[in-house]
Amino acid sequence: MDFETDRRRFLELAGTGTALSLAGCSALQDDAAQQTTTTGTDGSGEGSRRVAVTVQPDQQRLQERRQEIQSELSSGNVSRSEAQQQYQTAQQELLTRAVDSFRQRADSTENLRVVGAVEQFGIVLVAGGPATLIDSLSFEMVNALLPQETFQRAKSQAQGGAGTGTAGSEAGAGATPVESSTETPSN
Model's pTM, two decimal places? Predict the structure, then answer.
């Protein structure tokens, strides 16, 4: 059974994958002038860049949940549409945990700052030094660095998509599919 998700469709539309992962890394160099700011050294300072980071849910737990749902479907306890809904809910919960885990890791990493997140797509906008951003690829939940514009597209799609995306603040981040902190476009 294939469970189609909004996140998967967004990532397909955004063209993520190996090629864009590499493009995201090269964006650190190519867009340096555009993404450099001029204050402090806390991830928003001199030499700082902004990129989108995509995180993935815990794949082992997601596979376990998928097997549980498939078992329920096979035994007739749930319909196909209920199974798909349960899987999407499980995937979203695990994705939210991955974003939260990334936030915690970023908070404890020098020169890396979370600027905003679109949890429903697992995309986080971060600011930091180029080396720190590249090092974030070693975080277990991170699967790609992408250009900052990918975050903007995700945010727009989430806010305009089916009326489910709403802008939230850090305080109400738990159930809010889109959250954004002090994000400002840099020129």
Answer: 0.64
Q: How many domains, the chain?
A: 1
**CA angle, 145 as apex, 19 and 85 as ends, to 5°?**
90
Q: What is the pLDDT of residues 123-178, one digit of tens each?
A: 999 999 999 999 999 999 999 999 999 999 999 999 886 444 333 333 333 333 33
List the beta bridge partners of residue 116.
125, 180
DSSP states of the chain as a string? -----HHHHHHHHHT-SHHHHHHHHHHHHHTHHHH-B-S-SSSSSBT-EEEEEEE---HHHHHHHHHHHHHHHHTTSS-HHHHHHHHHHHHHHHHHHHHHHHHHHHHTSTTEEEEEEEGGGTEEEEEE-HHHHHHGGGSTTEEEEE-HHHHHHHHHHHHHSTTT-----STTTTT-SEEE-S-----
In a domain, 14, yes or no: yes
Domain-located, residue 71? no
Residue 180 lies in a domain: no
